[in-house]
Design goal:
By secondary structure, the chain is α/β, with parallel strands linked by helices. Helix content is 33%, strand content 30%. The protein folds into two domains: 155 residues, P-loop containing nucleotide triphosphate hydrolases (Rossmann fold), CATH 3.40.50.300; 59 residues, no CATH class. It contains ten helices and 13 strands. Strands 6-7-8-3-9-10 form a six-stranded mixed beta sheet, with helices on both faces. It has a four-stranded antiparallel beta sheet with strand order 2-1-4-5. A hairpin with a 2-residue loop joins strand 4 and strand 5. Helix 3 crosses helix 4 and helix 3 packs parallel to helix 5. The protein is globular and about 75 Å long. The two termini are 36 Å apart.
């Protein structure tokens, strides 16, 4: 896969605080890329800059071959962005909000069966029966779902999602992820910020952020595998206890060294949440 998004030395201050302080990052085309970090790590600032909503102070940025911020006007129509807090027009209906966002991306005129597209996306987020209702009558969860619909309705090639499943029930969350994976198969590049480690496990790769920097990029599987596993092996003649990292690589080696019959094998491994907390808060 090629590097679809490249960031070098990106910095952005707010007053005396550096929200981003030298971010270096590469994201491949067609992957689901997760950005994790504690509050204040710089996740939302990074996504807002990559989606052309915020200007960087310094650094080099390329998104889909466009240089930012000088070519951000060329990139905008290819981007879908869902903010952490829904940014909707409360005095408009759901369908009119979606049509407004479509007009933003196609200033030279809408194409195709627009109403059919609006109905399809409203059905996906389970709001079709509320299409003509004002947003001011919606619950926070419904607004979250419509916000996602606004990011998806123009079928972007790059999708930025800031906490997309916050406030969404488990059944609909699963439907969201099924749809995100379908978009990936169709070639869409998806960048997600999240605090939810269940969401992170769906990503192809993860960037961990702290204090305005990306300090680690890895796959969820490899991150989990790097954690500590506690193993209790009960044999006829003895009980042996081990602590190992890199479970999938190291455990088979220990298993070969064991002689005699194993009566019981108990394994307790660190979760992705355990590893995330250790990496982001371990030195605090």
């Amino acid at each position: 896969m090629s590097s679809f998004i490249e960031v070098k030395g990106l910095r952005k201050p707010f007053g005396h605080i550096w929200a981003l302080n030298g971010v270096n990052l590469e994201i491949r085309e067609g992957e689901i890329f997760g950005i994790l970090g504690p509050n204040g790590a710089g996740k939302t600032t990074l996504v807002r800059i990559l989606s052309t909503l915020l200007k960087p102070s310094s650094g080099e940025i390329s998104v889909a071959g466009f240089r930012l911020p000088s070519e951000d006007h060329k990139l905008k129509r290819f981007i879908g962005y869902m903010p952490q807090r829904p940014s909707l027009y409360e005095d408009l209906s759901a369908s009119k909000n979606l049509k407004f966002f479509l007009n933003l991306h196609f200033s030279d005129g809408l194409r195709g069966d627009i109403q059919n597209r609006i109905d399809q996306i409203l059905e996906f987020v389970e709001l079709k029966d509320r299409r003509d209702d004002l947003i001011s009558t919606f619950s926070s969860g419904m607004k979250q779902r419509l916000s996602l619909a606004c990011a998806l309705v123009h079928q972007p090639k790059i999708l930025f999602l800031d906490e997309p499943t916050s406030g969404v029930d488990p059944r609909l969350k699963r439907a969201f992820w099924d749809y995100f994976k379908k978009l990936k198969q169709e070639g869409t590049t998806i960048i997600i910020t999240t605090h939810q480690l269940t969401d992170a496990e769906h990503c192809d790769r993860l960037a961990l952020m702290k204090s305005g920097k990306v300090f680690l990029v890895d796959t969820p599987h490899h991150l989990k595998d790097s954690g500590i596993s506690k193993i209790r092996i009960t044999k006829k003649s003895e009980v042996k206890e081990l602590e190992i990292a890199n479970f999938s690589e190291e455990f088979p080696k220990h298993l070969k060294e064991l002689n005699g019959d194993i009566l019981r094998l108990d394994i307790t491994s660190e979760t992705l949440e355990d590893i995330f907390l250790k990496l982001t808060h371990g030195n605090d």
